Write a sequence for this structure.
């Protein structure tokens, strides 16, 4: 109840972010139900389809965790701490509000899915949906509920893991692991050729590798920006980039890997393309993953902005021109784009080389 | 203090304010405050918490615009300036030292101290030189290459003092700078502040509610509920205009 009360009182922007989590969860839930209905109709080859549907699931969970971290009501607050609501219980509160948002999305997905199949009342769109969603076979209830519970359960568990009180690692720590995993991913893709499962495993390895390497890359980016006798602008931009590297790095790496995947798919489209066994829902699923990755990065940036609020106040007391602060933010973004675009392009080139060998 | 009849402030005052009024969302914080401060003077602003000391400092330093009244710095009206020129004035001529050190955690100690110079566009080399010189004078040169997180609170506050002094401003506004410190650290910080002010002819407005801190000032102004209660020399203690007011109330 407390989680709901805290959630109800928060600002519209926070509510909008939770609504976006619910929407992402709804999209993923719909996709999972579609895969289930397909499996009931035609069991052969349904396992790879389920595996591909795990990609949007992972993106949704990542986004939900970012939103929970950026949520002001999950931050330890003196008033709540004095009332006995310390960091541990606040973590549970955050997990509950994440679960609420995701469950709402799952319920919406179920309702829309059943409605399109004509299971609820009438059949919309002249039955196109019914054919697409294999309405002739009944949906196994327990399986559907388990699949729909996947998003809320994993998102809440990941929220607890991410928000538990722990000492942060230095951003450069995981860089070698990240590079190694990315290389492994590319190698797996090269060996697997254009077989769906191998491509998926390779791409997942690349994504995890880039997510691990992201903080180190962002840190290196910051180091470059503030190198060699910096003035106020480069000093502020570079150092704050270094400071925020461990927060903004992982979503940046994930976005890079998603962009690399999209570029690969575009490059391979003329030559038969990637085989994604999600049928007509492949494009919506790809869009969902891309939107989730972008939204996660934006949310992490917003969170970073809030954690830098004290510093900004100090700068205003020093009468720092707002122009310098804006220019520093612009410089930070430019530096990140300047690293990420070539990185995505390079990974995409290597992937398509490996796949068309 | 009675305002002079003509519109312009007296020439010998570096900082001069007339009938300042300011309200925080309807609650009056400053009521009809007038004062003049001469160059190189150290003035203590005393008063209980919530008596309007910080608001007065922010009005005088151009961070807040008074809803009524005038603020003049070196015969230049501050209350009619645009935002940009007020910002430039604060950057070039004023220093600010708050109750919290407000150091940027991602910058090294010398970079924090050099930040005001870097913001005015000084070169990296000259800013570093000036900052390290001030850190040396404040006995914290050994920490110059460390991050603020590695320093104690008193050391951080001394870095903040170095940051306020590094541009050698005309006026330093010190808002309860010793509030979070122990007594020995307080004495050290105040001694450094007053020594630097005297040797560089810097005017200091020192807001505090601590008697010992106020004792270092040349002059003392007391704020009571946003009004200037009276002026007195720093020693002996003020001859309680508040007390008289209380008597007349009880009579």
């Amino acid at each position: 109840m407390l989680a709901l009360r805290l959630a109800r009182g928060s600002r519209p922007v926070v509510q909008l972010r939770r609504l976006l989590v619910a929407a992402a969860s709804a999209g993923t839930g719909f996709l999972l139900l579609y895969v289930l209905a397909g499996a009931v109709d035609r069991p052969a080859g349904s396992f790879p389809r389920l595996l591909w549907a795990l990609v949007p699931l992972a993106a949704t969970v990542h986004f939900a965790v970012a939103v929970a971290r950026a949520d002001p009501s999950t931050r330890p607050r003196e008033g709540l701490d004095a009332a006995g609501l310390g960091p541990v219980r606040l973590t549970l509160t955050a997990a509950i509000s994440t679960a609420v948002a995701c469950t709402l999305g799952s319920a919406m997905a179920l309702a829309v899915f059943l409605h399109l199949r004509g299971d609820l009342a009438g059949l919309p769109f002249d039955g196109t949906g019914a054919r697409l969603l294999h309405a002739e076979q009944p949906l196994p209830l327990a399986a559907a509920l388990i699949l729909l519970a996947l998003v809320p359960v994993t998102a809440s568990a990941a929220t607890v893991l991410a928000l538990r009180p722990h000492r942060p690692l230095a951003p450069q720590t995981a860089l070698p692991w990240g590079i190694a995993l990315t290389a492994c991913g590319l190698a797996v893709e090269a060996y697997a050729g254009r077989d769906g499962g191998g491509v998926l495993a390779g791409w997942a390895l690349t994504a995890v590798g880039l997510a691990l390497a992201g903080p180190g890359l962002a840190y290196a980016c910051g180091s470059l920006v503030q190198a060699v006798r910096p003035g106020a602008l480069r000093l502020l931009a570079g150092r704050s980039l270094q400071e925020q590297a461990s927060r903004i790095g992982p979503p940046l790496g994930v976005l890079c890997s998603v962009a690399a995947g999209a570029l690969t798919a575009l490059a391979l489209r003329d030559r038969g393309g990637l085989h994604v066994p999600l049928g007509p829902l492949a494009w919506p699923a790809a869009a969902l993953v891309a939107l989730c990755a972008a939204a996660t990065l934006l949310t992490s940036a917003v969170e970073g902005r809030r954690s830098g609020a004290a510093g900004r106040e100090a700068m205003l007391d020093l009468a720092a021109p707002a122009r310098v602060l804006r220019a520093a933010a612009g410089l930070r973004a430019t530096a990140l784009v300047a690293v990420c675009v070539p990185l995505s392009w390079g990974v995409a080139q290597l992937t398509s080389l490996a796949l068309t060998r | 203090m009675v305002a002079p009849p003509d519109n312009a402030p007296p020439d010998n005052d570096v900082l001069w304010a007339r009938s300042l009024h300011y309200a925080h969302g309807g609650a009056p914080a400053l009521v009809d405050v007038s004062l003049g401060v001469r160059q190189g003077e150290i003035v203590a602003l005393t008063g209980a918490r919530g008596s309007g000391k910080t608001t007065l400092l922010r009005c005088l330093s151009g961070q807040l615009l008074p809803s009524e009244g005038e603020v003049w710095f070196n015969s230049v009206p501050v209350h009619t300036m645009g935002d940009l020129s007020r910002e430039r004035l604060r950057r070039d001529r004023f220093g600010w030292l708050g109750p919290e050190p407000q150091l940027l955690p991602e910058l090294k100690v010398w970079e924090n101290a050099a930040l005001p110079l870097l913001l005015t566009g000084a070169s990296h080399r000259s800013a570093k030189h000036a900052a390290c010189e001030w850190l040396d004078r404040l006995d914290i040169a050994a920490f110059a290459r460390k991050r603020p997180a590695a320093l104690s609170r008193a050391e951080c506050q001394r870095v903040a003092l170095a940051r306020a002094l590094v541009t050698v401003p005309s006026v330093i506004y010190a808002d309860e700078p010793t509030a979070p410190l122990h007594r020995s650290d307080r004495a050290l910080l105040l001694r450094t502040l007053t020594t630097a002010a005297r040797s560089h002819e810097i005017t200091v407005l020192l807001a505090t509610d601590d008697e010992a801190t106020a004792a270092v000032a040349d002059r003392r102004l007391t704020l009571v509920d946003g009004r200037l209660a009276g002026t007195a020399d720093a020693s002996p203690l003020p001859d309680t205009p508040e007390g008289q007011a209380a008597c007349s109330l009880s009579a």
Observations:
- Strands of chain B lie at 13-24, 27-38, 42-46, 68-73, 76-77, 94-97, 171-175, 203-208, 219-224, 227-233.
- Residues 1-5, 232-251 of chain B have pLDDT under 50 and may be disordered.
- DSSP finds eight helices and ten strands in chain B.
- The domain at 14-250 of chain B is CATH 3.40.50.300 (Rossmann fold).
